[in-house]
Specification:
3 strands, about 150 residues, single chain, Arc Repressor Mutant, subunit A, mainly alpha, three-stranded antiparallel β-sheet, 3 domains, 8 helices
């Protein structure tokens, strides 16, 4: 059985040697925090992201939402089903492609999004409290580069 000292000594060395492992662990930590926060707001992370995108860019197909938000298509179907059931979005035939549906945020969806958005700054401050503001900005820049969206 490993000692507590060995546990606390090995992982920092592993994380320093394997940036991929460090990033995966950091991502998992932030993901758990986001899920906990989402449970408190009553709006899942994926649901929040869908409402935010629809509010920002207007009606979209589920495929576009899935691709842009990098959410698996089968998961996106469930997210949109749940949002539609709560009357936060509606699906309508896409006027540009009658074979697909456009997902549109409703007025109640906008209100729910606005409520959820109020707690995001405090959540981010708490989640990234170990980083100074300059470090958070630097992390954002570096992650953007890794994701191919940096300047």
């Amino acid at each position: 059985m490993p000692t507590k000292t060995a546990d606390h000594v090995y992982f920092p060395r592993l994380a320093a040697e394997r940036l991929d492992i460090a990033l995966c662990r950091a991502s998992a930590t932030v993901s758990r925090a986001a899920d906990t926060h989402a449970a408190e707001t009553g709006l899942g992370v994926g649901q929040h992201l869908v409402l935010q995108m629809l509010d920002a860019v207007g009606p979209c197909s589920q495929q576009t939402l899935s691709e842009e938000l990098r959410i698996d298509r089968s998961v996106m179907v469930g997210i949109c089903d749940d949002l539609q059931q709560e009357d936060l979005v509606r699906r309508e035939r896409n006027p540009r492609d009658r074979r697909s549906y456009a997902v549109t945020i409703t007025d109640s969806g906008r209100r729910r999004l606005a409520q959820a958005q109020t707690s995001v700054p405090a959540f981010l401050d708490d989640t990234f409290r170990s980083l100074a503001p300059e470090e958070r900005a630097q992390l954002s820049t570096l992650l953007g580069k890794l994701l191919g969206i940096g300047a």
